[in-house]
Task: structure prediction
Amino acid sequence: MESQSIAEPEGVVITLDSVRESLIRQEDTIVFNLIERAKYLRNAPLYDLSYASIPGFSGSLFQYIFSQSETLHATQQAGRYENPEEHPFFPVNLPGSLLPPQKYPQILHPPAASININSTIWDKYFDQLLPVLVAEGDDGNYASTATSDLNCLQAISRRIHYGKYVAEVKFKEAPQDYAPLIRAQDSDALMKLLTFEHVEEMVKKRVEKKAKIFGQQVTLCDDGTEGKCKIDPSVVSKLYEDWVMPLTKVVEVEYLLRRLD
Result:
C-alpha cells in the first residue's frame, strides 16, 4: 500500500517511508558510535560515585560531564532540546537557549513533549550493553570514554523516541484501527497492532551487517587482521532485539494512548 503523506501547515511532509529512512540513517550513527566506544576499556572509576568529589554536584564524574554537556547544548547550540526529536537525560533546571527560538514544525500531538524514557535507556546502557560491548579494565581515557558514552546514549535515545513519529504516521494512515483501542486505553492491543515481526527481523539483520562492514579492520598488507571486526556484530543485533525496538514500541504506545487527548 502506498504511504499516505501528512502535510503540516509549515510545508513539512512526513510519510512512513520518510520515517523509515530516518531510522535507517540513525542506525549508521548508532553503529559508528558503538564502534568508537568499544576501543576504550570499561573505565569503571568514571561511573563511581566515590571517585571524584565535585562541589555542588551529587553524582559520578560521568554524570557531571553529561549534565554539563546538556546545559551547554541547551544554551549555546540553538536550543537543542527545543527540538522535539531531542530528549535530555538531565531535564531538571535545564536553561533556555541564548539564541532566538527556532520554530519547529508541529507534527506531533502536544502531549508527546511529556514522554521521555531516558532513565530506562540510561540503566539498560550501563547494566546490559557496556558489559558485553567493552573489555574490562582501566586505560585512563576518561574524557574520551565519557564523550563516546554521551554520543552513544544520545543517538540511542533519539532513535527510540523517534517512535513518536512512527506512531503519528501509523495513526494518520489508519485512524479507524487505532482510535477504538486508544479510547479503550488498551495498551496490549496497541502493542500487538504495532508489532511486525518480519520487519524487526530485517532490522536486526541489517544492523548486524552494518556492524560487520563498518567495523572491519582494513590493512594494506596480509598480516591476518583483514576482515576482523572492531566490534561483535551480534551485540548490535541483540541491542536492537532486546531493547531498542521494544522500547521504541513502548514510546509508540505511550504516544498513542494520549493521541486523542
